[in-house]
Amino acid sequence: MRKSVILGALTVAGLAAGAAHAATVDDIKARGKLNCGVSTGLVGFAAPDAAGNWAGFDVAVCRAVADAVLSDPGAVEFIPTTGKTRFTALASGEVDMLARNTTWTFSRDNDLKFEFVGVNYYDGQGFMVPKDLGVTSAKELDGATVCIQTGTTTELNLADFFRSNNISYEPVPIETNAEAQQQYLAGACDVYTTDASGLAATRATFENPGDHVLLPEIISKEPLGPLVRHGDNEWGDIVRWVLNAMITAEELGVTSANVDELSGGTNNPEVNRLLGTEGNLGEMIGLDAEWARRAIKSQGNYGEVFEKNIGENTPIGLARGLNAQWTDGGLIYSPPFR
Amino acid sequence: MADTSFVRTEMLPEQSPPLTSVGVLGWLRANLFSNLWNTILTVISLAFIGYLLAGLIPWVFQSVWVADSLNECREVMNATWGDTHGHACWAVIRERWLQLTFGFYPSELYWRPILAFVLLFGALAPVLFPWAPRWLLYVTAAYPFLFPWLMWGGTIWAPLMVAAGLAVGYFAHKFVEPILGGLAGMIIAVLAVIVWWLFLVGPLSGVLASIIPIGLEPVESRNFGGFMLSIMIGVVAIGVSLPIGIVLALGRQSDLLIVKAICVGFIEFIRGVPLITLLFVASTLLNIFMPPGTNFDIILRVMIMVTLFAAAYMAEVIRGGLAALPKGQYEGADSLGLDYWQSQRLIIMPQALKISIPGIVSTFIGIFKDTTLVSIIGLLDPLGLSNAIRADAAWNGIYWELFAFIAFLFFIFCFGMSRYSMYLERRLRTDHR
To answer: Mutation test of the interface with chain A: which of B390, B399, B400, choosing the one with the most A Cβ atoms within 10 A?
Structure first.
């Protein structure tokens, strides 16, 4: 039976504990699969379809990394984690990386000993109100009842915002986003507050999305990005530069459609270096020359991934906003491939 | 005077009772409208039931079965009934029912969980029903080894080697007992089995598998989900917790100090901690304690925790049964000259377990429903999957249909267990009350 095998393995592993273990990337290559921690389900960011295939904005990062390292975007074991289990899953080595709309904060980076490799989505806490409430700014919400998820940073942000603006509110504590939608639609609260991307996704599911408005105030910074454990910088670099490759590809106009054509060689040396036709960037990162080319070919560049999963043509309909390239006035910016 | 007297000389023919006291009318009068208060209650209850059904029936039956997204459902509803309220969108169940049942189990291997489920009934039948053929007991004996093999796959030698461990124990006992005596024989037999399972099963089955490779395609625990997961955890917890619970209950009543202390400590500790805490221990704490790279199956960890939890409750339920037995039963057993195990097996347990049936089944049902808590540690049981399904942009915003479907399936199982326990109570009723 399986149990005995595992118990046996446990004993052996126990004896071997303390021995230095191999680099993460070698483990992944030996295993043939990348273990990627994702959300148990968040609209647009990570969700399984009817056949059990995961897709979404965060999932695309996992697949791109798997494609760069293992030459197969399907070689990913998606491990659903909840807000409570995600950090132990990463710290204990159950997952190699976490791509799970996790906010980059000081304490998570330092106290929990993780390394955020970048930001793939700049989010912030916003407000949604019914249109007929006639409110145009969050500062007019004096005395409002607010639906808010308990035990999250959104709760603290909300308290800070109302206190600094010297207005009062009445919190309606709720546990999940699903519950919040029902409470808000039933009129149990005047306002629903959570991350702006979540509000947009929630509003898109309403029967009459036009009856609800998102207020312009964004009251917190929520830079979301993939993260890895402390202690293996080479692995952190791989994840970081896969993300950067997708961002740079958009900046340089490399898409999944033209990447093959551009791989034939171009006049732009940075494109050539990115796609591995010039220089030896792949060797520096411990991968082959075509690592970035594969990831871009299978997943698309940052802009393509955005448009496909959460962009304006999807039901979620998020505008690029802060998440536009720096050349278009956004914050998405990758260090150069040089 | 003679003419005025009247003496009936023949019997009157029997008349049927008045229409208002027999048949449907009579039943209604006796049970629903027997007096003013009863009548008022009946009318109010009927109105309430009618109100519920008036909302529920159109919702269930005037519904959309074919659509690719919630918005499409709403369009169809608008086109057919003019509004979207009070109509279910069962299309989500139609699209996802396989996922809700099997999780991410590979679809070409669905026959394995189905076969395991069917065999489960074969294995349970001789235990549960007296009319079941006795040869099914072989299925029962093989099932604990067959079940994990079918679900997880892998080489057939692993379950065979584990089963062989029992033979190892038996022979160790048989050879050692004449030399060293009963207690030493028992201890050495148990040690032999443990050593066999821990150190020899893995290598041996590996060697055998390389010589004669018979096996099923392995399936990762991560792919388990949906009702399959709930039923797996529930069946293991139910099946294993009953014997452990009996042992714990007996241990708690034991005169041996250490045995008693261990049992009391275990029971009180587990009962003093919420199940969700144990699940968090299983999912996160154990990860930190165990050396990195250890692959101790998450589902196995959860099964162990749920089983321990159920066993502690089971022990207390059975202790209740033991306490309800009159002292004379114990003394009667002693006076017959039975030793401890004989009296437990022949006199005490049959009665104590019979008394405890309602409590035992309640615990079973409770544990089965508690398996939904695993969604909190990221396992995709039906409730966890309902969240994952809602995360699909096409189905975001759909609640009642998913919850209704999940509730319906849970109800079938729990109601089934409840009916069986009532049948068992009737069958075992010996009427000495």
So the answer is: B390
Distance CA A74, CA A206 (A): 33
Listing DSSP states for A64-82 in one string gives HHHHHHHS-TT-EEEEEE-
Contact B198 A206 (CB under 8 A): no
Residue-range domains of chain B with CATH: 31-59 (no CATH), 96-105+219-428 (1.10.3720.10), 156-216 (no CATH)
CB B173 within 8 A of CB B162: no
Provide, as residue numbers in chain A, all residues whose Cβ is less than 8 Å from the Cβ of B98: 50
**Distance of alpha carbon B83 from its chain centroid, rounded?**
41
Tell me which H or E stretch contains A236.
Answer: helix A233-252
List the single residue in B104, B205, B284 with the smallest CB-CB distance to A52.
B104
- Which tokens go with B303? 């099964």
Q: Does B276 touch chain A (CB under 8 A)?
A: no
Q: A214 forms bridges with which residues in the sheet?
A: A128
Asked whether the beta carbons of B390 and B397 are under 8 A apart, the reply is yes
Query: What pLDDT score does B319 carry?
Result: 94
Confidence category of residue A166, pLDDT binned at 50, 70, 90: very high
Does A106 score more than 70 pLDDT?
A: yes
Specify whether the CB–CB gap between A249 and A255 falls below 8 A: yes
Angle between helices B157-180 and B182-195 (to 10 degrees): 160
What would the two tokens of residue A268 be? 């732009």
Asked whether residue B291 carries a pLDDT value surpassing 80, the answer given is: no
Query: Which of B279, B387, B398 is best to mutate for the A interface (most A CBs within 10 A)?
Result: B387
Bridge partners (DSSP) of residue A114 are: A229
The label of the residue with tokens 């109800």 reads: B411
Residues of chain A with CATH 3.40.190.10: 21-122+224-328, 125-220
Burial B27-61 (b: 16+ CB within 10 A, else e): eeeeeeeeeeeeeeeeeeeeeeeeeeeeeeeebee
d(CA B136, CA B406): 32
Q: Could you read off the pLDDT of A126-137 as tens digits, one per residue?
A: 999 999 988 988
Q: Which two tokens stand for residue B353?
A: 């377990």
CA distances from B39 to B21, B47, B177, B184 (A): 16, 12, 75, 73
Contacts B284 to A, Cβ<8 Å? 84-85, 88-89, 92
User: What is the CATH number assigned to the segment(s) A21-122+224-328?
Assistant: 3.40.190.10
The span from the CA of A219 to the CA of A186, in Å, is: 25
pLDDT of res. A239: 96
Question: For B11-23, how does the pLDDT look when each residue is reduced to its tens digit (9 = 90+)?
Answer: 888 888 887 778 8
B297 to chain A: closest CA residue: A6
Provide the 10 A C-beta neighbour count for residue A83: 16
Q: Report the pLDDT value the prediction gives residue A41, as an integer from 0 to 100.
A: 85
**What ipTM was reported for this prediction?**
0.81
Strands, E assignment, chain A: 34-39, 47-48, 54-55, 76-81, 97-98, 114-116, 121-123, 125-130, 144-149, 169-174, 191-195, 212-214, 222-224, 227-229
Domain A125-220 indexed as CATH 3.40.190.10: yes
State how far the Cα of B384 lies from the Cα of A175, in Å rounded to an integer: 14
